[in-house]
Specification:
Keywords: Membrane, Transmembrane, Transmembrane helix. It is a single chain. This protein has one domain. The protein is built from 2 helices and 5 strands. The radius of gyration is 38 Å and the shape is rod-shaped.
Length: 185
């Protein structure tokens, strides 16, 4: 054998393990890279899923709030319509005077019936009526139903003053729901 043949064998022997080592490193590098990429994708999809769930929950809360506002508005309008139609003298009296001074124009069972009722399938009760404020204030509470909490609604009620003899009792000119209480932010 020539010197050149021996040198080639030595270089081949030295180069083979090095080449083999590079392949081993490259093959060992792919698995951690694939795992890292899959973790990034997994975290990204979890983040997207979390955002969509939060948006859905926010939508449900908003829908519950709108339903509560509708029920409260219906209850307030129903109560004020009944007061105006059947017992207009109570419009001028604060709620705390109904049981004493209100008996002049409305029987006790009628007053008791006005203090609670049903609107759009929800039970409500009259918490307060303050006609002396400008505008008058009506406070109604909806009973808890299903997974919805007890909620209260405040109404601003515009009353036209009584003008005897043609209009002996105050007249309702406007009703607005101004606040909803019992709503989680």
């Amino acid at each position: 054998m020539s010197l050149r043949g021996n040198v080639e064998k030595v270089f081949a022997a030295i180069a083979m393990p090095t080449l083999h080592r590079h392949r081993a490193r490259e093959q060992g590098f792919v698995l951690p890279l694939a795992m890292g990429a899959s973790m990034v994708l997994l975290l990204g999809s979890l983040s997207a899923h979390t955002v969509s769930l939060q948006a859905r929950m926010q939508g449900i809360r908003e829908q519950q709030q709108r339903r509560a506002e509708d029920r409260l508005a219906s209850a307030g309008q129903q109560l004020l319509a009944e007061l105006h139609r059947s017992h207009p003298c109570l419009l001028a009296l604060p709620l705390e005077h109904w049981d004493v001074h209100g008996l002049v124009c409305a029987p006790a069972p009628a007053i008791a019936a006005l203090r609670q009722g049903q609107a759009l399938g929800a039970s409500y009760r009259l918490i307060d009526w303050r006609p002396q404020l400008q505008p008058a204030e009506l406070l109604i509470e909806l009973a808890a139903a299903g997974n919805e909490p007890t909620r209260q609604g405040a109404f601003a009620v515009q009353l036209a003053p009584a003008q005897p003899p043609t209009q002996p009792q105050p007249q309702i000119t406007d009703v607005r729901l101004v606040g909803l209480r019992g709503v989680a932010p």
